[in-house]
Write a structure and sequence with these properties.
mainly alpha; about 80% helix
Length: about 290
Amino acid sequence: METIRLIYDTAKVRLGFLIMACALAGVAMSPTGSLSGWQLFVLSFAVLLSSASAGAFNQLYERNMDQHMRRTAGRAFVTGRFKAGWAWFAGIALVLLLAVVAAALATNWLAAFYIFLGAFTYGVVYTVWLKRRTWMNIVIGGLAGSFAVLAGSAAMGAALAPAPLILAIVLFLWTPPHFWALAYACRRDYEAAGVPMLPVVVSESVATRTIHWHAVVLVALSVLPVFFGMGWIYLAAALAGGLYFLRATWQLVHKPSIPQGWRTFAASIIQLGVLLLGAIADRLILG
């Protein structure tokens, strides 16, 4: 059981379920096409596996940096409970390959390609190329979640349909304030590790206001799918989750503190979860 728990944490499976929900929302918001139960299951599991492979690679690659951060010092590759080596790299690559091939066979190659791009963006573009080099790291890295939405809509044959495309853009805009709130709360850790997250390289005022205005734009944009076929359930979810997130970012601007940084980080997860569940429920209930 201990090994299973360590694998679960190392592969960031909780994050994987959120990414899987992004793909399901992409399916739900697509105006055309349909998937059978088994196709939907394989697509969902493929997205979860690809996310897990990227998460495990992130912890494997960053093990030396993680030891300098209190939040990550207990990770399995840092403590030695998992021994880093080429077997891990090979296993991670194999899991990603399995996910891509399964998605391609169950749906289509475009959906599989988007799944691959999501893992590649997080694992290589963000983790290897950008994270230690520029504060824009998580801005570009935000595309990882967007590709999950596009994988869902591509599986339905509606890759560029307006509603899922808007949701993909919302995901792109959501990731920076979500992660910057975490980086604000853990600023000393990122300073110690030499990672140039936005709250590390700019003043507190600039960081908190940037988080807030990013949230304003993404919440406003999240309402637009109502004009492209989404119903009142989606609208209610977008407004409820969005206003909750904006309240947290506004409080971070006016009463900045580490606890409020954590509350804002949690509010971002709640906002996205409510939005995605609203999209799925809208499709299931309203058709």
